[in-house]
Specification:
By secondary structure, the protein is an alpha+beta fold. It has one domain: GIY-YIG endonuclease (3-Layer(aba) Sandwich), CATH 3.40.1440. Helix content is about 40%, strand content about 30%. It contains four helices and five strands; from the N terminus they run E-E-E-E-H-H-E-H-H. It has helices at about 50-60, 65, 85-95, 100-120; strands spanning about 5-15, 20, 30, 40-45, 70-80. The strands form two sheets. Strands 4-1-5 form a three-stranded antiparallel sheet, with helices on both faces. A two-stranded antiparallel ribbon has the order 2-3. It is globular. It starts with a strand and ends with a helix.
């Protein structure tokens, strides 16, 4: 059976990162993406977290991240979901809709749980 993982990356970018896009109206040329911000969270789903992280770092199958001038990519959250692709996809979309604050809370909660598990093992 295939296991699916929902993961979150902290992507640090240079502040002027992002692509120009053209639109309609008096302000037809504007910067889209992360202009003025130096980091964001990227949420994805995969069957192999380590392989997918390397692909992001190498720019393979990662058009979204390639559109920015990236300083670093760090894996900050991993959640194993049920062995059902649709449920994993639903969870990924749920986390993507979270605010930045809620994503940070999820990461902190996950980190604290990992530390508790480590203490119990020792």
């Amino acid at each position: 059976m295939t296991k699916y993982y929902v993961y979150m990356l902290r992507v640090k970018v240079y502040k002027t990162s992002g692509k120009w896009r053209t639109g309609y109206g008096p302000h037809s040329k504007k910067r889209c993406g992360m202009y003025g911000r130096d980091e964001f969270f990227y949420v994805g789903m995969t069957g192999n977290v380590n392989k997918r992280l390397e692909e992001h770092k190498l720019g393979i199958r990662s058009n979204f991240i390639l559109s920015f001038d990236v300083q670093s990519i760090d894996l900050v959250y991993v959640e194993q979901t049920e062995e059902n692709y649709q449920k994993a996809l639903k969870r990924e979309k749920q986390i993507k809709r979270y605010s930045k604050k809620k994503k940070e809370e999820l990461i902190n909660e996950h980190t604290q749980n990992d530390r508790k598990k480590e203490r119990n093992i020792r």
